[in-house]
Each structure stands twice: as structure tokens, then as C-alpha cells.
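Sample pair:
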Amino acid sequence: MLQQTQVATVLPRYLAWFDTFPDIAALAAAHLDDVLKAWEGLGYYRRARFIHAAAQRIRDVHGGTFPHEFSDIQTLPGIGNSTAGAISSFCFATPTPVLDGNVKRVLKRWYAVPEATDKSLWPLAQEAINVSDDPATWNQAMMELGAMLCLPVNPGCAECPVQEHCASAFGSFERTSAKTVAIRDLHWLVHLHIDAKHGIWLTQRPATGIWAGLWTPPITELAQAPQVSPSHVHLLTHRRLHLYAELCGNPPCGNGQWVTDPRRVALPTGIHRLLNKHDIP
């Protein structure tokens, strides 16, 4: 949940998650729609699908018990080497390193290798943790060192407890220019079929792509922007969605279903806001 999401946003959702899915068995048995609904508003719904798939793999392959072997943890959907290293070291005391952004920065400065790639940093991280008596504390310390002292700009070398061992201590640190990511504008016509008795007609998005697996009114992607202002503009990481609401009088067609209360299904935040602007709860 903390990937790309602020702590203040995550904390209440983290507690609510376990009210809904108290254990791996409950999560594995849940319908994906219910998992996505519980994740609603956190964004990056791919994470929720990974968690659901991982729970099902633990149920089906590991007898419902979270695997203890590092190699087995790596096979769980959504778990990369760094996350697997964190889980394994914290839970099972294995000498498996973490290589998040903070740790990468610490290692690059520690060894004075500012241009080092992830491939070359992994052996350095492994070498360091191998001589640690407490892998969990080591990983936590490395992450905290990068987060609190070894900052991208103006690092606190004077307060750093390992400054005498750092090849870059008190060096000249310049802000690295962040890679600019082009934002692509998409123009979507959102067809609102509203019925006083049946509610609103919703369709499920494809399993891949934007808002994968979530429920929305039927959407038509437009080749170019209309001559009218969008009803709502929703910004994603690499996309800017211009949503144009169209109230439709004709009956809906294709796969979908009438939903009397849209709050009961997993809707994207952008669609929630669009519906609110049209006084649709």
C-alpha cells in the first residue's frame, strides 16, 4: 500500500483491509471485485491484483502458509527481489538485502560509485549484509539512513554515524535531474445510461490497461478533443484523461449490468468524481 501512496492515506486503509480480509485464506477466497473495491481510492490497482494472486498461490502451492524460503517468496506475484529480501530478513532473519531507492543512494555514496547500476549494486548490498549479525536491523538501518540523513540534496554527513567509513562523506552532492515523463492526453466519451428503477449501466474494464478490471460506464476513446470542455480531467502517472459525460437516452448494449448503488462496486476515482458532478451517488 505504501508504494506510491502517502503514509497518512495508507494507515486507516491498512487497518480496514484486515477487517475485510483477516487472513490469507479470506483474501484468497474473495472475489477479485471485492478486493478491488477494498482497494478503491489507493490507485495503482495492479498492486491489489498482485496481493490477491499471491494469496491464492500461497493457498494453492504452499498449503495456506506464507513460504519461509527466499526463493519461494520471490515467486509470489508482485514480489521483486528487494521486497522479497525485506520480508525474508525481517520475518526469517535471512541475510537477504533490500535495494530500494534510499539504499541505492547510500551504497553509491559509500563506495563512491555514483553511476552504478542496480546489477552492480546487488553484490555490494549482499556483501555488506553477509557480515551483519542482524540482517533485519541492517536492512532497516540502511533504509532509514537514506531516508533521514543520506538525502538526495544536502545530506547530513556531520550527523552520520558511519561517516568515517563513507568514501563520499562531506563530498559535493548535486541534485540529480529527474527523468521527465511525457504525459499523454486521452479524450474519453463516457456514456451515462441512467434509469430511475435500475440505476446506472456499468461495464467492466479489460484485464489490462488503464483501470483494468474496474467498473465504469461504457467508454469510447476519441481520436481528438471535442469542441467542448471536459466534464472532468483525471491525472494518472503517464496519462491525462479528459472525460466527457454524455447522458444517453437509448438503451445500453453489449456486456454490462445495471447497478442501483455504484458505491458497492469498484469504480475508479476519476469516474467517482465525474458521477458526483452529475449528482449520481
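The longest strand covers residues 184-195.
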